[in-house]
Amino acid sequence: MSGLVSEPRRVASVAFAAVLLAGGSVACGGGAKSDSAVTDLPKVAPAEAVAKAAKNSEDITSLHYRISGTVPGKGRLEAEASMNTHPLAMSMKTTAAPDQGGNGQLEIRFVDKVMYVGGSAVRPEKLKGKSWLSAAPAIWGRGGADNQSYGVLPSQLQASPTAQSTLLTGSKDLRLIGNETVDGAKTTHYKGTVNSKGLIRGRLDQFMQLEVSDPLTMDLWIDGDDRTKQFRMRAEHNDDMVGTGDGPLDLTITFLDINQPVTIKAPPTKDTVPLAADAQEG
Fold first, then answer.
1. What is the CB-side half-sphere exposure of residue 48 using CA atoms within 13 A?
2. Is residue 274, in this structure, part of any structural domain at all?
């Protein structure tokens, strides 16, 4: 199917990550907990509310967000990240989960189609006395066939969260759960399931990149400005796509700041060493 990364490319990416990182996992900063506080419920239909939030996501030019949960093949993830859409750039800081065999901190940046990786989780011998490794061409936040992070990021984190948050518009069983507080913001909680069949092309590509089986269960929390505040995705890993026995997906992404100034710069050239071609090929 379109949007899937081929098996040879995934093998090379996994090999890249193995030589790059000192620990076994890329782990990412904790998810928010919401307090149920049912009061006045919205008068609009769930489908209308979710569609409006999806439409408003198109106006997001920068985002600061938090990630928590588990992804197939990686285990528990905790991270905090920022992104710009024009030009497309992303910076993510992660801390390895002790129970996942990780080792230290990791920072990943995508700037001008180059990926930079630094932090104590990078194997020191690869840095050659520098602070950052670089690899190119590297692309984040586009369609599944275009993204490339050389195995450093799991596929489920290679899409823009603003695009992933719109997947619930494809649900046929949307329902209102109630009013809840998420990260200090009053929100309305909706829930539904999403199947790949019937999704429009762009959203199908986002779904396929998750590498999960039908159905995807999705929760969406919408704030008072009709914007996504948080979403959660849960599904079983699709072993027919890539690998076997990689475990389920259960990922929560919380939007912390929207359209606030974000600066993402490439590290100084003097502090960066390109990763050798043989390491990229595994």
1. 4
2. no
Task: Show the domain range for 234.
Answer: 7-265
**Tens of pLDDT along 130-165?**
999 999 999 999 877 788 999 899 889 999 999 999
Give the number of other Cβ atoms within 10 Å of residue 58's Cβ: 10
Flag whether 272 is in a domain: no
Contact 208, 4 (CB under 8 A): yes
pTM, two decimals, is 0.86
- The rounded distance, in Å, linking the Cα atoms of 238 and 184 is 35
**DSSP assignment letter at 282:** -
CA distance 255 to 102: 26
Give how many domains the chain has, as a whole number: 1
CA distance 221 to 208: 23
Q: What are the C-alpha distances in Å from 78 to residues 173, 207, 215?
A: 30, 21, 24
> From its phi and psi, is residue 141 left (phi > 0), alpha (psi between -120 and 50) or beta?
left
